[in-house]
Amino acid sequence: MRLVAVGQCQGTGMPHGHHALLCPQSIETLRVDGSGRHSFHAVLRRHTEPLGLAVFESRFFWTDGTELVSATWASPQEHAVLLRAPVSAFTVVHALQQPPRDTAACAPGLCSHLCLLSPVHPRGYKCACPEGLFLLPSGKCTELSIMYASGKAISLVHVGPGAHSRWVQEWQEPFHLQDVDWQRSVLYGTDDRGTLLSVVGHPGRREAIATGRPVCSARVDIRSGDLYWLACNRRDIGVIRASDMFPRILHRARSSIQHLFLDWQRGALYWLARGQPLQQLSLAGGAPWDAWNETWPGDLPAAMDSRAFSLLWCSGLGLRALSLTKQQAVTLAPSWPHGVVAAFEPYLVSANETALLLWDRRTLTLVLTMPAAGVQGVVAFVGSELQAVPPSKGSALPLPPPVTTTMKTTTSTTAAHPTTSTTTPTPSRTTSVLTTTPAPTSKATTTTRSTPTTTSQSTSTKTTPVPTTARTPPSKTTTVQPTTTSTTTTTTRALPTKVIVPRPTTTTQHPTSPARVVPPTPPLQSSPAHPLTPVLHLSCPRTHVSCRDGTECVAQEYLCDGEKDCADGSDEDGCAQLCNTPGAFHCASGAMCVAAGERCDGVPQCPDASDETGCWTPTQECALRCDAATRCIPKSWLCDGHADCLDHTDEQGCVPKECGPAEFSCRSGQCVALALHCDGDHDCQDGSDEEGCAVPRPLLCREGEVRCSHSGECVPEAWHCDGTADCRDGTDEQGCPWEEGLCEDQQWGCSHGHECIPDVWRCDGETDCTDGSDESGCQPAPCQSHEYPCGLGTCLNASLVCDGRQDCADGSDEGGNCSVPCKQSCAHLCYPSPQGPRCWCSPGYRLAKDGLSCVDIDECTEWGEGACSQTCLNAPGSYSCGCLPGYLLEPDGRVCKLTGAEPVLLAAVQSEVLAYGLRSGREEVLLATDKDRVVFSLDYDLEERKVFWMDLATESIRWQDLSSGKKGTLVKGVKSDCIAVDWLGRNLYWTDGAAGQVLATRLGAAWQGIPEYTVVMDGDLDQPHSLVVQPLAGLLYWSEVGSHPRLMESTMDGSRRHVLLARGLGWPTALALDLPTQRIFWLDEKLGSVSSARLDGTSVKVLKLGWVRSPFAAAVCEGQLYWSERKTWSVQQVDKASGKNRTTLLKRHGQPHGLQVMHPALRPTAPNPCETRGCSHLCLLSARHTGQCRCPARLVLAADETTCLPLRDSAFALLVSSVAVAQVYLKDLPATSGSQGLPSHRTLPLAKVGHLTAIDYAVKDKSLYFAEVGGNSIGLLRLKDWGRLSWKKAVAVEGTVTSLALDWLSGNLYWIGGQLPSIHVAAPGGRWALALLSEGLQGAAWLALCPRASTMCFVTAAGSHGPGATVECAAMDGTGRRAVWRRARAPTGLTFGAAGTRLYWADHERGTISSIELDGSHFRVVREGLHGLSLFAIGEGFLLWSTTSTNGSSKIWHSRMERAESWWFPMEKDLVAMRIYSQFSQEGTNACAKSNGGCAQLCLPNPAGRQCRCSPGYHLVRGAACAPAVSCPAALQPCPDLQSCISGEQVCDGRPDCADGSDESDCPSRQRGTQVPAVSPSGMSRVEEQKPTSPITAPQPRQPSPSSPAAPGPREHGEPFLVPPSTEEVLRAVPCSSETCNLRGDCAIEAGRVTCHCALGYRGNYCEEAEVQPFAGPIALGVAVLLLLAAAAVGALAYMRRRDRRRRTSSTASTRVLTLYHRESDPEEEDEEEEEELPPKSDTFVNEAYDGKEELPALPRKGSSHLNTGFS
C-alpha cells in the first residue's frame, strides 16, 4: 500500500511492527510493510503545532512546546497533561523499548568492523568497512595494496591507516612488473629483453616462462591462474593455461595494441589499438567485438578499474573515465598533467620521474606520495578470498612477507573464536586500527572468565602507563574451537615502570630502551582456572612512584637510596639486581643506580647529581671546545678552511672528506656530482674533474666558441679576456687589448693607465693596482689620542715617548722638553714629550678640545659596518659586537659566522639548478628541466622544502620538492624577470616588466586552470625588474629599469609606496637584501657598479668594478656578495663591503640566471599575522606586522575586508530611461520593499541625446552603445570616465533602431531597424555593414545574442500563424533560422541564460517570465502573476523586472532565481531597457574572436565555425577576401568565384565554362536519378530525400552570392542549425546547369552570352515555353485532385493535434511544477479562449514549434566530419 500524507507528518516507532505518523489533528498508524493503516482522528488540539510523538504500551505521548500530553489508544480524545513546561524533545525510557536480540544477525565475529542489520539481506545483516578499507566476501575489511617496480626492486604499499611502503625484493637486472597473482603469491614481469618472468613466494627466484617471442605486457586470470600476454609486435595476444603451461596464440589483432587489460571477474580481455574502438574478447578466445564505438587515438596513458568496471585515460581534454556498464564517458578533470598508471575505485595512481602518487579520484586530491624513481609497472589490488576456487598446489608463501611485530604488552579479546596468542609475526597486510587506549601497567594482565590462556613473557623491560595512541595490529591467532561468549586472555609479565605524567604517545613496533630502570616487582602467579583480580593503585604525581601495596607514593629520588620509604619496603627491593644491569650507573653516594640512558641526559637522577658530572660530549652545536675550553665550535665549522679558534685547533688534523658514491672526488678533496665529471666544465677548483676524459677533441668549435691556441680545446668566446685563464695554455688571456684613459667617475686610474679601481680603494692601506700606485703619495693616517706622531708619519705608543730610547726612526720621540715634569690636571694620563707634558687618553677615548678631558669614541657610529659585521653596542672606552640568531661571533670579536648546516648557493645555469657548498665547494645538480627550457629566476622555501623557479618556455612558475623530487606548477600564463618567496606570509611575488605590475599568489596554491594570483601593484611602474622582500618588516623592494630607473619601496600589500633612490642609477638589474646589516645591494649593468644603501635610502656606497658587465641576480651571505654574470657565463663573489677579493665560483657552458643562498638563518621566522587574519584567499603582509586580505583577479573583497566574493556578486544592472543610464550594483539592492528611490547608484546623463530606444554595453572596454529615435546612427560612449558627456557615432543606420546587441567577442554590432524591419550587422568601427535577414520579420524586436554559442534570437509577429508573436533563433551568420516558440502574446526583454543554452523572455500580457531550451524543448514558466510587467533582465543568478500600475507609478522588482522572495523599490522615470552585466557575463570565444577570423570585412560566427561576408558591392574571394563584384545581365548568373557570368544550362554540360572549372564539379549522375542537388534556404547544398525527380520539375533558383542581403523566413518544423559552406564547397558549386534552361535544354556560353539549346517540344531564351501542350487538361485535373486530398489531410492533422493537445494538458495538469511568483493584487481572470490557454508549466510540455525527431544535435566540433568522434 502506498502511503500518501497530507501536510507534514512526523514518525515514530511502535510495537508489533507498527509505525506511527503524527499529522495535523490526527495520528496515523500502519505496519512497517505499509499495510494496516489506521487513523486516530481529532486527537490533537486545533491550532497547535506538535513537536514530537512517542508510543509506549497503549498510550500516545506528544508535546506542543508548552506541555507534555498523553492519551490512550482506546480514548484518544481524552488527554492527560503530564507536565506543563516548555518541552522541545522527549522520549520514553524502558527496558521493553529495546528488547533483547532475537536473531543471530550481527553476532560478534561475523564482521571485522561494521555490522549493519538488513532485513532484505538473506543473512539478515550486511558487513561494512570504514573509509579507505575494502570488504572481503568473508566479512573482513582489508587495505588496498599497490605493488610497483622501480628499477631492479619491487616495493609494496598498503593504503590505509598508517600507510607505508616497504621493499619486497631486488634483483641484479631490471624487472618490469606486469601483474600480481595474489591468490597464488606469484609475481609476473618482464626483463629488458622481453622475457616473461615469474616469481613465486618471497623471497622468490626469477623463473623464465617460455613464450617463443618477446613479451611486452602480461595479465593473469586470478580465478584460473591462466596467464595472458601481448607480444612485443603489439599484435599477438597469447595465453599460457595453468593446466599445461603451453604457450599458444589466442588472437592476432589488425592494429598495433597499446594497452591490454584483463577483467578476471567478468572473464574478458580488453585492448586499445590506434584508430580502433575499444575491443573485447572472451578469455576462451573467439572473435572480438566492439566494447565501445569511439576510436582510440593512441599514445595516451590509460588504466582499467576492474572494481568500477571502467576505463580511465588522459588526453588534451583532461582526465576522462568510461563506464563500461553505462557506456558513458565523463570528464573527471578538465586538466590533468599527472597521467594514470593504475586505478582501483575510489583511487587512481600516477607516476612521475621521482614519485608514485595516489589520488582520490572523487575529489582529485593527493592522498599519498611514495618516492620512487623510474617506475616500471604498477598493480593495485585487494587480495580477497575466492569462494569457488580450490587452493593452488603451488607455493603457499604469503605475499608480501610477514612483518615482525614485538609488543611489550598484548591485550587481545576475541568473542567468537578463542585464540592462543603467540609471538608469531603478524602479516603486514592486516588492518591497522587507530585506537586511543590506556596503556597497560607494568604488571599488565588482562583476564577473562572460562578461557584457556597461554602466557608469554615479554623481553621488554619497560612499559609506559600512559594513554597511548597505538596502531595495534591483531595478533596472529590459531582457532581452538568455536564458542559464542569466550574471550582470550594474554598475560605479559614486565618490570614496573617509572610513572610519568600522562601524555599522548605513539607506540611503534620496535622495542625501546628503558629510560629508567627501577626495582622489579616479584612476578604474580596466575592460573588459567583462577583468574586474577587486578590491584588498584594510587594515582601518583609525576615525580613519585607507587609502592607495591598501592597505599602510598614515594619520590623517585628515594628509590634505592638505602632507606625503606615504603611500608612494605618495595622501594628498596631489587636494587642490587638493578646495579648489576649492564651499563647501569652507580651513584657516588648511597646504593642508588640509574640506567645507562639517564647518564648525562641533562637531568640529575642521583641524589648527589653524580650522574651528570664530566658529561661533555661533542654535539652538532659544540663539536670542539678550544681556547682553553672557553669557546665552542660547531661541527660545520671544523675543517672548513677558515680558522675559528685562536689556537687554530679547528683546522688541525683535517683529512679530506670522503665523497659519496654519486660524487667525484677532486684532487683537492672537493666533491662534485658524478654527473659533472667530464662534462666539459671545470667544476673542481683544481680542474681535475676534466682530466683524463676520453672525449674526442672537436674538429671545429661550435658557434660562440674560440679555440685555445696550443692546448686545442674550445672555450666560450665570452670567456676570452675576462681576467681568468680558461685555456690550459692560458692563451685566452693573452694579447688582450687594454682600454686606457677610460676611467669614469668614482674611479681612479692606476699609473700604468690600463687599470681603473674604485676611488675608495685609493690610500686604503691595501695595494690594489698591480704597480702599487694606489698607495703611493698617501697622507699618513692620524694618530689616536694615546699615540705620539713620529716625524715620518708613524705613530708610537705614548708610554714609549721620552723613555731614553729612540723609538721613532727619526728620533723625534726623545730630547726637547722631555725633562719637564707633568703638572697638568689630565683626566686620564699625563706623559712627557719633546714638546712638553701632554694629556693622553686611554684607548677608546679622544682628547677633548680643552686638552685635559677625554671623551668616549662611539666606534659603532664612526666606524659603521667596519666595527661589527652585524650588531654593535658602544660602551665607555670600548664597544662590543653581537650576532643575530643562527650566527656565532668569530675569535676576532667582530665577524659573525653562520652556524648549523653549510650555506648552499643555488645557481640557475641554463636548464639546471646547481647547489654549491660555500665552505666545502661540494657541487651537485639539484634539479634539471628539459634542455630547451631555461630556469630563469628562482627562490626557495625551507618550511615546505621547495625550490621555485620561473620557466620562460612554458610561461609558468614551477616548484620541486627538495625531499621527494616531486614537481608541480604554481601558476601559469605569466612572464617574469624575478620571483621572491615571502617565507613568513606564505606568498610568492613576481614582477611583470611588460605589464608594469607586481603580482603575488599563495605558496600553497595548486594550478587548477584558474588564476589564483592578485595584482599587488599596477599603474605607474616603469618596467619593474628585480624584486626582494623583507617579511619581518612587511616591506617590498624592487628596481625599475625604464626611462627613469629607480629603486622603490612599499609595504608588501602594495600600499605606502615611495621612491627609495632615483639618482645615480643606470640599469639596476640585480637586487639583494642583507638583513643583518639592514642594507640593500644592487648591481648596475649600465654603470658596471656594485652599490648599497641603508633601507631608508641613506649611506649610499658605489663601487665601479670592471668585471661587472651583465649582472642578472645577486645574493648576500655573511661578508660576501654573489652575483650571476651573463656575459662571462659565470657566478662570482666579492667582499660585500669593499668589493675586493673577487673569486669565480662557477663557470660553465651556459648562461647563469637566478641566484640564492640557502640557509635557515637567512630566513628568520616570526609569528605570521595572516594566520589569525582569517582571509578567505590571499593575505599580504603590511606595515606594523599586520596582514591585509586580497583577492584573485576574478574576485572582489567584500565589505568585511576578509571574504573574497565572485565578481558576479558585484555584478551590476543598467537601468535605461529615455534620457539617462543608471548603474546599480546588485549587491546594493535593498533587502526590503518600498525603499525611497533608487539604491546606491551612478547616473550617466546623456547630453545632446534625444529619446533612447536601445542600448548594449561592452564590459571589457566599458563602452555603451545606444540608439535614439530618429538618430540615424548608433552612438558609442566610453564610460571609463563617468563625467564625460560626449559621444561618437559608431555606425550609420537608416530609420529608427528598435533593438541592438553587441557581439562582445568579435566586436560586431547587430540591430533591428528600417521601415521594413531587417536584422543588420556591422563590423567593428562601422566601416562594413550588411543586411543579414529581411524576410518574415514583421514586427521584429528584442534582438539577443549569445556569442559563445554563435547564436542570435529575436521576436517576430506571428502573422499567418495567428495572433501573438514568435520567438525565433538563428546562427549569427543568418543560417539555420528556426522558430522555437509560437505561443507568446507580447514578449519583451529577450535574453540568454548564463550558460547560453536557454532563452528567457517576459510576456507583459500574460504577466509571466518564461524560458525554453534553444532546441525548443523544456518550456518553463519562471515567474507568473506579474501584473503590469513591462521589462525584465536576468543574469548572475538575479532576476529583475519592472511593473507599471494603473496610476502610472513604476516599480523595479528584484529576486534571486532560486528563491521565491522578491523586493521592490520605486522608479520615477519610465525605463526603455534594463540589462545585467558582470565581468563573467562576457567571457568565452568564437571563431571570429581573434583577428576577425581572417576575414577581410565581416566575420560572422556560426556553431560550426565562421563565415566571411562582404558588404554590398563586393564579392567573396577565396573564402576570406573581398573584391568588387561583377555585374551579370538578367539572363545570366555569376560563377561561384563571382568573376564571370554564365547561363544555367552551361552547368554540368561537360565543358568547363568558369575560369576555375567549377561549373563541371560535383555534377550529379543522370542515370540514377535518385538524388538531385538542391539549395537550402541558407544557400548551402544538401541532398533531398531519395525520390524520383521528374524532368519537368520547376527549378529552384540558385542564390550564388554569399553577400545576399536577404534570407528566407523560418521553417515550419525546426531544423538544426545548418553548417555554412566551406570555401571548397563554394568553389565546387555548379554555376551553369540544365536548371538555367529549366531542365529543358543544354546551357552554353557563346560569344560571352548564355545560350540555351532547347530540347524537342520547348522554345524560348531559357526553354520556358512548350510548343505542344496536349496534356494540359489532365494535368490541371490532377493538380485539383491533389489539392483536395492535401486539404483533407491538413484538416485531419489539425483535428488530431487538437485532441492530442487536450490529452497532454489533462495528463500533465497534476504534475505541474510549482512556480515562484509575487502577486501585487488579486490575479486577473484568465483568458478562456482555448488557443490562448497558457501552456502547462512542466518539462513534459510538448512545444508545437519543436519537433522531437528534429531535435537540435550537439554542436559539432570544428573540423568534425563524422559522428563517431573517438576518444578525446
Describe the structure.
The chain is globular. Strands 107-108-109-110-128 form a five-stranded mixed sheet, with no helix packed on it. A four-stranded antiparallel sheet has the order 1-2-3-4, with no helix packed on it. By secondary structure, it is mainly beta. A hairpin with a 2-residue loop joins strand 32 and strand 33. Mean pLDDT is 76; it is low at 1-8, 12-17, 385-537, 1566-1608, 1611-1631, 1668-1676, 1702-1742 and 1746-1765. The longest helix has 37 residues, at 1672-1708. Helices cover 3% and strands 35% of the residues.
Main sheet properties: 5 strands, mixed
Number of strands: 128
Average pLDDT number: 76
Summarize the amount of helix as a percent range.
Answer: under 10%
**Proportion of strand residues:** 35-45%
Could you say which structural class the secondary elements and strand pairing correspond to?
mainly beta
Amino-to-carboxy terminus distance: 49 Å
Global Rg = 46 Å
The largest beta-sheet arranges its strands as 107-108-109-110-128
Sequence stretches where pLDDT stays below 50 over 5 or more residues: 1-8, 12-17, 385-537, 1566-1608, 1611-1631, 1668-1676, 1702-1742, 1746-1765
Question: Judging from the principal axes of the Cα atoms, what is the shape?
Answer: globular
Number of helices: 4
